[in-house]
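Following up on my earlier thread - several people asked me to post the actual chain instead of describing it. Fair enough. Here it is, all 257 residues.
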Amino acid sequence: MINQRAILKPKVRQAQISDLIAKRGKVRVEDLAARFDISTETIRRDLTTLANAGHIRKVHGGARPVTPIGEGGFEARMRRNALAKRLIAEKVVGLVTPGQTLFLDTGSTTLICAEALARVRRLTIITNSTRIADTFAKGSGGADVYLLGGLYRGDNAQTVGASTARDIAKYRADTAIITIGALDKGGVMDFSSHEAEVARAMIASAINLRVLADHTKFNRSASFRLCPLAGIDQLVVDKSPDADLLDALEISGVEVI
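Reply from S.P.:
Thanks for posting it. Predicted structure:
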């Protein structure tokens, strides 16, 4: 048993429980109660809170990691790892200066970043996400917003397809801010061919590539490749990758923030 676990604040304890479940797979309520020296009723409340936030999946007698096929629906993705994504967003704000031109692709992490970036003055935003466009249009920074055309898909409120890629080629951005589905030593990937096509086009039309990835994307694989690690200028994360992946990133010249 780890000393003084009982005095941990609930949010700190819940974060540790979530990490433990991600590492071990299924965990039992009784084992968690013993580890943190608290009642099983308190553990069950913690698991309910984590499950409602989309971080874990409750099962009989305990909990398992969330293991969706692909990435799941957009609203579920917005709830998943929300605190990690907000940490990433605040880091991104510190990297952006007034007057820059930015690509932002569709994603839960980029939408949360948009909410933070909307206060930065005089940005020019180019996006295929109607949610992101609306966020900047309503923001205090007075951004100029360009919404890319193409085939509209209501599930993610985005435009996709060949016409979207052609539209992207008309612009030149200082930085492409891209969210991803997976990252390993071979590069970055996505689960959607449509979203991967848009991301690749933005990467090709930007001077700098900034990839956003919470820790659940590390050492994971997806079907559609965006670029190798060497194509990334900055990788903005909530937690540092493991030693092997971090070494691969450093060898590839990626700045991990």
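Residues 127 and 147 are 5 Å apart (CA to CA). That should answer part of your original question.
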